[in-house]
Amino acid sequence: MNPAEDGQVSWALCRAAARSVRDTEFGREAEAVVRPRSTLGVFRTRGPLSLLIYVAARDGRLVWRGPGSFALLQPPADARRRSPGPGLGQAVLRRIVRSWDLFLFCTPIAVLFAVAAVCAVLFRATGQRWLITAGLLLMVAVLSYVLIMLSCLVIWGSLWFFREFGRRARGSGPIAAELLPGTRWTLAFCHHLDAGRPELLLRLVQQRLDRLLRAELDRVAADTGVRVKDVQTTESLVCLRRGVTTGPMRAAVAAWSDRGHLFAADSDVTVLLSDHRPVRAPIRIFDRGGFLFWYLSAELAMVALLSRDVPRWERAVCATQCAGHPVTYWDAFTWLAQRLLFTDPYGLGPASRQSWVIGWLVSLMSLTGLLVTVAAINQYTRIRRIEMNALAEGFKIVHDHTRTLIMVATAAEYEAVVRAVAAVSDVAPRPLVLPHQVVTELGAVSRTKLMLAQVEPGTVSPGAASIAAAALVTTLDLDFLILAGICYGLRPGEQEAGDILVSTQLRAIDDRKEIDPAGTGQPPLPREGAEVARILATTEPPPGPRTVLIRGDQVTPSTALLTRMREVARGYDQSPRVHFGPMLSAGTLVNSRSLRDELLKLAPDAVGGEMEGAGVYAASAHAKVDWIIVKAVCDWGFGKTDDFHELAAANAATFVVRAAEQGLLDDAPARGTI
Predict the structure, then answer these.
(1) In this predicted model, what pLDDT tens digit does every residue of 426-458 receive, in sequence order?
(2) What pTM, to 2 d.p., does this model score?
């Protein structure tokens, strides 16, 4: 079992993993991505890398193969509030890691205050004057520390302001790297030293994301009182390039996750799109304006510091007539706090000029802060809204691809489709393992996502087209289903081997009724079985050919696909030629001259025949998916050889892929409309 599955990665292993990261070419840069600078500029917002790994393992977000191969998944900002944990200790440790800057800021203050309080208690017990001196020095140290931190906040904030607003507009990649990790699950950190086997870690990353989302759904479902069995993960995974520690692994992550080509090739972010189409984008509130807390804290700290000097100025002026003046620390603090509202407390006002000036400066600080806060919030929300809308449109465009499944029945047909797609796309085929079928994802051509499934020949076996198509049309949420490959031709005078046949009608000829030759006049049979057996033993069957009545469906494929295939055919001049007409579908492999002639008599206008079309039609009819058959002639229904299999399969595959390349599969008609 993977030790990270149940949080059993030890502290020693976490430290070894952190040391392994620092020895890589991009280790420091990747660590800075997962541990960015805080608003103070002197601390990191997250704890040390070894502690991050340790906490992530216990939260289930660590994908672990060893100290030299692991990855960290980061949930959306709103999901962090719901992070599970094994107990109070884990919750406290998680809070420390996620608020590392606040922990480092508050801990020295708390320690100094605690030591000062101990000095005060000991002074009352012993009367040693050096204890009160030490306590006062500790308080001065606290105030100095706070002043230094506030200065760092101002300096770092100023640098950020000039860096953000003083340079040219950035592209969508840097903006996405900054914003997307707060709104979607993110591969924030990835460390892998074995350059030859990156796919193992990446496969575990995708499996872990599915598991985390399913676990969260199970918790919600259990609280709601329901149980969910069939789950499709629609979450997209954001991958940060700068969070990967080695060059080869950066290239592997980009190739694995950038199938949608949402951003430029050298972008800081790529997105692993889900195999399933989302109903809508998740609603997540990730920015609650927490930076205002720091501004208000700075104002409060300034009032607290100035309240130390106001009493001294007041006592120097008022001498013995100090009633109604802020001559104590609390009175000074109360007076300055109300000056933030441009008023003085009742019966309390300054006597010295210094205090009067400071009071008005505090009021102006409040007014300026209010204006700056309003302007910052408006600017921040406006820019972020525009940027997020642009990113959302990008996701919508990519997810708005239609989904086309090409179904084949032989290995030669499968390879022909893969080669045809590879000729127009640089995306490597990727297997998608479903419960009862493996589908090959071929990538997007124009604006349709092409998928390929190989089924068993015929229509009645468990792996045949009828069963497989019925499962896939619903599981994959298809827009188009195209049956491609090889068939037999019925018009050798007009057709040549390799010519393409497109069905204008499908005739399912397996469902038939056969009766004795017409005019035989057979009398009704007796009811007794013995008498029937005597008749069979003493008489001959009626002479002549039987009468065959086809009772199967005769259906028209999708008119949308049919018209689009006619558009593709207009680009074919000589060889191969494209023929449109009815096609016969039966589970029988036809290699008989007499059977071929019989079929042609039954359907004299048919252009060819094949074995899987009836199953595809039946499944598509239930799911209301547009379907069509595009196959090429490899023989004539007798004297079969394999000489033209590859040629016919290649021609049919090229024809289908050309339809996608020309954008004819980009838009699917709305179901239920004309």
Answers:
(1) 888 999 988 888 999 998 898 899 999 999 987
(2) 0.66
CA–CA distances in Å: residue 80 to residues 220, 285, 432, 637, 645: 16, 12, 30, 65, 57
Question: Measured between alpha carbons, how far is 426 from 442 in angstroms, rounded to an integer?
Answer: 10
**Which residue reads 């239930």 in tokens?**
622
Give the C-alpha separation, 1 to 393, whole Å.
41
Two tokens, residue 311: 């009493």
d(CA 189, CA 205): 11
Distance CA 4, CA 57 (A): 5
The span from the CA of 560 to the CA of 627, in Å, is: 9
Q: Which of 64, 82, 65, 63 is nearest to 73 (CA)?
A: 63
Q: Do residues 71 and 191 make contact, with C-beta atoms less than 8 angstroms apart?
A: yes
Kindly report, residue by residue over 105-157, the tens digit of the pLDDT. Answer: 888 888 988 888 888 888 878 878 888 788 888 888 888 888 888 788 778 87
* Average pLDDT along the chain, 674 residues, taken 10 residues at a time: 60 92 90 86 88 90 92 76 59 84 86 86 82 83 82 79 62 65 86 85 91 88 83 86 91 84 77 77 52 66 81 78 82 84 83 81 73 63 63 58 93 96 90 89 90 87 82 88 96 94 93 73 71 81 75 89 95 91 92 91 92 91 92 94 94 96 87 56
Residue 185 corresponds to which amino acid?
W
601: Cβ contacts below 8 Å, ≥ 6 apart:
none
CA quadruple 79, 254, 271, 264: dihedral, nearest 10:
130
| Angle at the Cα of 621 from the Cα atoms of 616 and 625, rounded to 5 degrees | 80
Nearest to 61 by CA among 37, 89, 36, 80: 80
Say if CB 654 and CB 571 are below 8 A apart. no
Q: Which of 102, 142, 391 is CA-nearest to residue 262?
A: 391
